[in-house]
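USER:
Working in pairs, take the chain set out below, taking as long as you need, and write a paragraph about the fold.
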Amino acid sequence: MRLPLPLLSVRLSLSARAFSAAAATGGRPLPKVNVVARYEKFGPVDSVVKLREEPIEEVKPHQVMLQFMAAPINPADINMIEGSYSIQPPLPAIGGNEGVARVLAVGSDVKGLQVDDWVIPASPGFGTWRKYAVCDGEDVDPIPREGVPLELAATISVNPCSAYRMLHDYIELKPGDLLVQNGANSSVGMAVIQLCKHMGVQTLNVVRDRPNLSDLKARLESLGATVVITEEELANTRSLAEAMETFKGAKPVLGLNCVGGNSAADIARLLKDGSSMVTYGGMSRKPVCVPTGRLIFNDVSLRGFWLSRWTETHGKAERRAMIKDLMDLIREKEFKTFVQLKPFEEFTEALAMARAGFKEGKVVLTYTP
């Protein structure tokens, strides 16, 4: 597909000399033209985001040039473009907060990065829906590439990290403990299941009913889910009692909520006295409703988690240690994900897939040089 090309600056003819003077490139020629998914105003993602070609700026001594290899389309990406997310980048902006890139060039003042390293954005709002990027060396973190599938490298920094933090920051989970979560088939939910299996924690997993429910249950159980039930079964006293028999009287010590509404209330009713329910999403677009008695008589705490806030308030060393833990699990074949790969050139179709209900996996854009 050939995109309309805006007028390129004559600076392009000088860029090759600037690249070679300021950056190590491994002896390879560097690209001069980029393709980006840019938006100039907030609004419906399918109408405000446009693919366009742009010149690539020169690499300064403190910068690196990246070639993106894969980047997912996350719900937060779409919310950000629509203007409904807590973070709103200055306009015009490039979509995408997460992805994995290969280093093409390294500025002379950059430490700790080399050509061909794999890197991920160090913070949200990076703009990963583009073929190439030039950024400060501090804006990315290196990750190991041996034994790590591309789709997992591209999706490691948001959903698995959210799951990791919620399992470590609110209660000291012990082997044999029980956790309950809704939205269990979401990317965060499946990460929770796999991390809990590694920790020896049992999980009661709630999903929406659907035509292929048996297939979904089998998938989640293959990841390590102890029990999988539907929202309707969670709300039904008899069905819930049957599901809870597996846990021999144990009550959940932690609840994770990404749905809200009645589902959140049903999870709160299950929790052990003194436990917490952590909300990290609101897919139903309904408020979190919890019976007052659960707060007063059962001392249930309601907490909230947002990975962007955690990233702002914690140092790079702690984030890198978390990523290393997750990467170790990936290399040990104890962590996997389900994705649908789509070429960046088919961006419109990829967006439609990402916004569809009951997806088979997260939509991940792939890039060719």
